[in-house]
Amino acid sequence: MEMCIIEKQVLDELAVRLDTLKIKLDSLYDKTGVAPVKWLDNQQACIRLSASKRTLQNLRDSGVLPFTKIGAKVYYQPADIDNMLLLGYKRDG
């Protein structure tokens, strides 16, 4: 792992900018009234569906389960998993 050393002042300025960004994002939520979607990663989806990683791969490949891929990570919206369960996906066990 590559390490990078930065001055404390730079780190403090970055922290302030991140806090400012969070405040702006929170105010956007307050204005729109739409809560941000909490995405599930592969492990969380496996737990929710009681399914293996391979089963999730098959569901993605067949188009049954919508997903979003960012880099090498795969994310799912909880509502998509809940809809799939409502439509009859059988959990193992």
Describe the structure.
A 3-stranded antiparallel beta sheet has the order 1-3-2. By secondary structure, it is mainly α. β2 and β3 form a beta hairpin. The protein is flat, with a radius of gyration of 19 Å. Helix content is 55%, strand content 10%. The protein has a domain of 47 residues.
Q: Short description, anyone?
A:
The protein is mainly α and 93 residues long.
Distance between the termini: 41 Å
Average pLDDT across residues?
87
How many strands?
3
Strand-residue proportion: 5-15%
Largest sheet: 3 strands, antiparallel
> Share of helix among residues?
40-55%
Strands side by side in the biggest sheet: 1-3-2
So how many helices? 4
Q: Flag low-confidence runs.
A: none
Topology as a string of helices (H) and strands (E): HEHHEEH
The radius of gyration over CA amounts to 19 Å
